[in-house]
Amino acid sequence: MRVAAIVITYNRHELLKECLDSILSGTVVPDVIVVDNASTDNTPDLVKNYPVKYVRLENNLGPAGGAEAGQRYAYENKYDFVWMLDDDVVVSKDALYELLHYYDLLVRQFNKIFLSSVTYGDKEFKKPFYNLLRYDFRTGLTKKIRDEEFHRDYFEYDIAPMNGLFIPREVFDIVGFFNGKLWGWYDDTEFVLRSKKVGFRGFAITKSKIYHPIEYRKQVKILGKTFTILSGRPYRMYLGTRNNITVQKKFLKPWNFYFIFLPAFIFKRFISIVFFYDNKKEFLKNFFRGIIDGLKEKLEVQNV
């Protein structure tokens, strides 16, 4: 079986180096495809020192555009699986081995599947991100996976981040690639939900571990519950809001979208900005602009 690890990068050559070192020192070593979103740093010189395939894009197409380009390249070059990775991750030594091992076991039982590694916020792999979610296809509302499920060999999910997705060729045959028009944020949600709509099931493999630094996020407690919110760059609020609305509008029935999902989403996001964000004015401006463009399904990225 031919496996391609697709690493999407933009101007982070030092982090990319650590990422490539970890992939290439694994117990199972894939082919590595570095998709460069037109970096202006030393990325082109760095990759010359590694046995990788280098796909340089003419413009920065964002995480979604880079993912789509990498997947098309892997598909055209007849790879059986792709493993999607950000350029700032460090993968555990057995991460890919465990994915292949459990794919062989689970595909016999469930037939149409894709997998995910489990992402951690610490290099000791003790604090998993709770970014694998259950999804209600009637309301668009999500809930976290219970803690105890992370202690099992695997568990099923409905929504997963791009980082760590392990996708067999069969998925691309049927549903196509990531939607590059989204540019970034919720492009992974759209792809996974699209795949589930045609009968694929997603499973997280808990022994396949990857470290991802917590960037542009902070955690706050509200009524005893811990929530993760964006911090740093307001344009991410625009993209996340626009894309989430666009994606939910695609998958939900109109009544459920307008009268259940949308009010709940706007209320929770507005409250979080007002009470917990710095630079509230810029975040609110990008939030409301994201609502408008999401409802219009306007996916051009301009001045964000």
UniProtKB/TrEMBL annotation:
The lineage of its organism: Bacteria, Pseudomonadati, Caldisericota/Cryosericota group, Caldisericota, Caldisericia. This is Glycosyltransferase. The chain crosses the membrane at residues 255-277. Residues 6-104 form the Glycosyltransferase 2-like domain. Keywords: Membrane, Transmembrane, Transmembrane helix. It comes from the Bacteria. It comes from Caldisericum exile (strain DSM 21853 / NBRC 104410 / AZM16c01). The keyword Cell inner membrane does not apply. PANTHER family: GLYCOSYLTRANSFERASE, GLYCOSYLTRANSFERASE 2-LIKE DOMAIN-CONTAINING PROTEIN. The keyword Transmembrane helix applies. Pfam families: Glycos_transf_2 (PF00535).
